[in-house]
Design a protein that fits this description.
Chain lengths: 621, 430
């Protein structure tokens, strides 16, 4: 194999239109009202029957409550009214995007019902349609295949989970989403990000997408040779994509190494027979243990012959234990302890030794795992942990994993099987005529590189700046600023590139500042209300919540009139009269320092320089 | 829309039918997928395929497009037969009439199919068997908007047969559009029916995970088993949620919303009972208890009856003939029951010729009263008969029944005035 990894991505991008199947606004609400209770039920199978066991489990476990939102949810969202016709603007955006990828557009687009019974869709299914197939995108000279572009509805937002009830808010349900899936064509973590950025900028080029955090989500499908397909679902931070890929590749390599070690030792699958070891820990001061025993729980243990050193070994590099703990946690326990991490957590060596003796452990390669919790829960958790340990003998289990803020992931659930879909008969199919396709191809939006070129020509900024603005996707704001205040084109470009990058390093996400505030800021600048040197300070203040006006006065940056500035400069010159007289006009350079210290932000550097020269020449005659 | 002639020919020559796996080549593109039913609104030259991914797409077919069948479908397996009846449980009989409540989706083709066999019907909601021994009988398989008088008659006869054969309760899955009419018809035809007869529907079809069919069926079964009430009822959702159900009297219930789960409402009376998610029943007042004994179905109906709604500018020229040609007329008047005064001579002419003219109100809420205004008094003088707070639809069904089961028009008027199945009452409280 000539590659280290394979990765495909799936991007879900919210569109900035009304909802896909009703006329509600696509806005998120701080509050919801009502708590309508619903159940969802697995529908009959192809055989017309229902698996009773699955049904029983389902009914025992799940109930959902739905909160409505003023303006952002209606009877359609509550599954109390049939869907309206598909939103035309959203459909067109998906067609345009497909054309940008040079994909084959489906002749007649049919909405499907994709069964989802976790409550995130009131109907129990997500409406989704295959808009096109077989596109491609070129990134850094490599062609990445596009398997599909779908148009679908976003799910309701989970607000809280309490016992067997999950509460959802309906505001986000029905937001139109474009889902684009690439082939497993990416070979490096950096390439994954580059492809995601390219697809993101193409999506934005349609001018129909929402912006900001949560409006675009990426799923990653990653495997390495000898590994398995792992899906990481719902990454929101684009810049973290390489970290997730790198960490996942390392995790899979580590698991292959663990498999190698276990194979060499000839380790056999462990039978998950739990032993009650509560008596061993009766006096153990560990908080987890005492809490469990006090609330009538138990400490259960399972012996894992041959697993020592793989659960947490080689200075914490081998981490099968973490995988086991993640599985265990899905069964309602806080965690498990395994022998590689003990003694620790208040469990001293005497208890570890006592347990080893209790379990009859003889070989140094033997390991154990324990769980302190109510008996049934502890048993379920340990069975899951042991199952995960056994899977390590085979290699890497296919999984869906959740992204964590630090760039790692945790186990979420097994990879779902093929989705069960059947036609959404309430929504008529959308016929895409050949004329329509021709019309779309004839009026394609500007591609990112075309926009770059145009920005350079139209506003006289440099190519690097244009490129960066496209990448950061703030060129639209730039065009608003530079379009209104043409003379400030260069200042606007510098602000949106260098200044924004600097601020970001300080932890200020200037991109979150509303466009209106930036436009107001530049409006003030164009009226010389402050000097452009003050822009970073003002943006900092505006980011904190001040209005641009308030920021200027707060920072004492009100621009001074030229004659007042001249007065200030004259007094500086006079204070250094001797020096000025000795150096003549060459004193301008050295005196710019004190002049700017007094006038920074109130007048721009060039003007200050001119005033200074004037005052000096006045003095020396 | 059906297939174009050329596409029909192409499919026929390839011997391709729904459910077949096809390899399709059209305009240089090749698709492999399962042939699906043509959507009613699909263009005639579109062939719908289900791809391996599960998505359906419509492929435009041209004269030179190619179709090959690569695999033929295997037959659909039948559901398991119901198990033996359990001792000590009551026997409920499901009488299928059609409607989406009794259908399932064929995942192979995606089409929603009516449940045709008894086992299919019961298998759709297997939990019913935890409440009672269920027998099922499919009477017809139609959408409720296509119900007519003969269907009501057949249904009433079937119900009485099943009760006489030992059923402890009857559940009738029914399309919701005209469920109120059927409930009223059964109420009058079955008279003092000794057992509960429950009509039940679904506002979301049974093939959806969010369907209200299961909840409504379960609530119906619980009401039949634990309610101890005899009569004809409608059981549906009481709110948006799946945690409360309402039992309505068959003569008082009306579909008041096109799509909500709680579309059915009792008008001018509280619902008979509420049922919570656990099956606990709370009655709003006393009622007739279940009893042993036979069930008599009096199914005679006079079909020459009409239901009219009065409106401003109602033209007597158009309606005089209608009134004269009918044995019975129900007018949903405005307000307290009024019609445009221009219509009063037409009413008089009809009554004089032997037509029974019954007045209800299109307000639905509240009772008719023709004593308050001149128009009303003139209507009474013309021979119109107001029937209190009876629903227009209930009055219409009752009038058909009353005329068929009375010696003459006067007899029918007396029947119309007398409450027989809770269809009207003297007290309406705030």
């Amino acid at each position: 194999m000539d590659y280290e990894m394979m990765c495909g991505i799936e991007i879900h991008q919210q569109l900035d239109t009304k909802k896909l199947f009703c006329s509600c606004d696509t806005v998120l609400c701080d509050e919801g009202f009502g708590a309508h209770y619903r159940k969802l039920r697995p529908t009959t199978s192809e055989m017309g029957e229902i698996d009773r066991a699955a049904l029983a489990q389902h009914q025992r476990h799940m109930g959902f409550r739905y909160q409505c939102c003023h303006g952002a949810s209606c009877l359609v969202d509550l599954d109390e009214e049939p869907p309206h016709d598909v939103n035309k603007e959203a459909m067109d955006a998906s067609l345009v995007f497909s054309a940008m990828l040079n994909a084959d557009i489906t002749d007649e687009i049919q909405f499907m019902r994709k069964i989802v019974v976790d409550g995130s869709n009131t109907s129990g299914f997500q409406r989704t349609a295959l808009v096109s197939t077989g596109g491609e995108v070129e990134v850094n000279g490599r062609r990445i295949s596009i398997l599909s572009v779908c148009l679908e509805e976003d799910a309701a937002r989970k607000i809280e989970t309490k016992g067997n009830e999950v509460t959802y808010r309906l505001d986000r349900l029905g937001f139109p989403l474009i889902e684009v899936a690439t082939g497993p064509d990416m070979r490096t973590p950096e390439e994954v990000m580059e492809v995601a950025m390219r697809l993101g900028s193409l999506l934005r080029a349609t001018k129909k997408v929402k912006r900001g955090i949560g409006t675009i989500r990426e799923d990653l499908n990653i495997s390495i040779p000898g590994g398995a397909r792992i899906e990481i679902k719902g990454v929101q931070e684009l810049k973290m994509l390489p970290d997730f890929v790198r960490n996942e590749v390392n995790r899979q390599k580590m698991l292959l190494e663990v498999k190698g070690i276990l194979g060499k030792r000839g380790v056999k699958p462990v039978v998950a027979e739990t032993v009650d070891a509560t008596d061993v820990f009766r006096d153990c001061p560990s908080k987890v243990v005492t809490t469990a025993i006090k609330s009538r729980g138990v400490v259960l243990a399972v012996k894992l012959p041959g697993f020592a050193g793989t659960m947490n070994g080689d200075s914490g590099r081998l981490r099968l234990g973490a995988e086991m703990a993640q599985r265990a946690r899905t069964h309602g326990v806080k965690g498990i302890f395994h022998s590689d991490e003990l003694p620790n957590y208040g469990i001293d060596i005497e208890y570890v030794d006592a347990l080893k003796e209790f379990l009859g452990m003889s070989s140094p390669e033997d390991a154990f795992v324990i769980c302190a919790a109510p008996e049934a829960t502890a048993r379920e958790a340990l069975v899951a942990a042991v199952e995960r340990a056994n899977e390590a003998l085979e290699g890497i289990p296919e999984e869906t994993r959740d992204p964590l803020p630090d760039g790692t992931t945790k186990y979420s659930r097994p990879l779902p099987g093929a989705a069960r879909m059947y036609p959404e008969t309430d929504v008529p199919p959308t016929l895409v005529t050949e004329e329509k396709v021709a019309e779309i191809r004839a009026s394609m939006p500007e591609f990112p590189e075309e926009i770059e070129k145009r920005l350079v020509e139209q506003y006289g900024i440099n190519a690097q700046q244009a490129h960066q603005m496209l990448r950061e996707s703030n060129y639209e704001l730039f065009e608003k600023l530079a379009g209104t205040y043409r003379a400030l084109s260069s200042a606007a470009a510098t602000t949106l590139t260098n200044t924004y990058s600097e601020l970001e390093r300080e932890g200020i996400t200037a991109a979150d500042i509303p466009d209106a505030a930036m436009i107001e800021t530049f409006g003030m600048l164009s009226h010389n209300k402050f000097a452009k040197e003050a822009l970073p300070d003002i943006i900092r203040e505006v980011f904190k919540g001040s209005s641009p006006q308030a920021a200027v006065s707060k920072l004492g940056l009100e621009a001074v009139e030229e004659d007042e500035a001249a007065k200030i400069v004259a007094s500086i010159v006079r204070e250094r009269e001797e020096f000025v007289r000795s150096r003549g006009m060459e004193a301008v350079g050295p005196l710019m320092g004190p002049v700017m210290a007094a006038l920074r932000g109130k007048i721009d550097g060039k003007a200050a320089n001119e005033i200074l020269a004037k005052e000096i020449s006045k003095l020396i005659g | 829309m059906s297939y174009s002639e050329s596409l029909s020919k192409l499919l026929a020559s390839a011997d391709a039918s729904e459910g077949c796996k096809l390899a399709v080549t059209s305009k240089g593109r090749t698709y492999v997928g399962t042939m699906m039913p043509h959507h009613d609104f699909s263009a005639p030259d579109i062939l719908v395929l289900k791809l391996k991914s599960g998505y359906n797409i419509g492929v435009r077919m041209y004269g030179d497009s190619e179709v090959h069948v690569t695999e033929r479908p295997s037959g659909r397996k039948k559901g398991a037969p119901p198990g033996e009846p359990k001792k000590g449980m009551k026997k409920l009989v499901l009488i299928g009439t059609g409607g989406t409540i009794a259908s399932y989706v064929d995942y192979r083709t995606g089409a929603v199919q009516p449940a045709l066999s008894t086992s299919e019907m019961v298998n759709a909601v297997p939990e019913l068997r935890d409440i009672a021994n269920i027998e099922a009988r499919v009477l017809f398989s139609i959408f409720s908007e296509n119900m007519n008088v003969e269907h009501w008659q057949t249904l009433a006869t079937a119900v009485s047969e099943e009760i006489d054969a030992g059923a402890d309760g009857i559940i009738i899955p029914h399309g919701t559009d005209t469920m109120g009419y059927t409930a009223a018809a059964l109420s009058f035809m079955l008279g003092d029916v000794p057992k509960p007869v429950v009509l039940v529907g679904a506002q979301r079809s049974s093939d959806r995970p969010s369907s209200d069919a299961t909840g409504n069926l379960m609530a119906s079964a619980r009401f039949c088993v634990d309610g101890g009430r005899a009569g004809v009822f409608v059981v549906m959702h009481d709110t948006h949620g799946d945690d409360s159900f309402a039992v309505h009297m068959g003569t008082r219930v009306r579909k008041m919303h096109t799509s909500r789960r709680d579309a059915f409402r009792s008008i001018n009376a509280p619902p008979v009972a509420h049922i919570d998610a656990e099956g606990k029943i709370e009655f709003s007042g006393p009622g007739r208890a279940v009893s042993e004994g036979k069930c008599v179905a009096r199914t005679g109906m006079e079909k020459k009856c009409v239901l009219l709604q009065s409106y401003p500018g109602m033209d007597p020229e158009i309606f005089t003939q209608v009134l004269l040609a009918s044995k019975g007329v129900v007018i949903a008047g405005s307000g307290l029951g009024h019609v445009n005064e221009n219509m009063i001579p037409a009413i008089k002419k009809a009554v004089d010729s032997g037509t029974v003219v019954i007045i209800t109100s299109q307000c639905l809420g509240g009772t008719t009263n023709l004593n308050v205004y001149n128009t009303g008094r003139d209507m009474l003088s013309a021979g119109a008969v107001p029937v209190g707070d009876m629903l227009p639809e209930t009055a219409y069904v009752k009038l058909m029944w009353a005329i068929a089961n009375s010696a003459d028009g006067n007899g029918a008027v007396e029947v119309m005035k007398a409450p027989l199945a809770g269809e009207t009452g003297d007290r309406r409280v705030a």
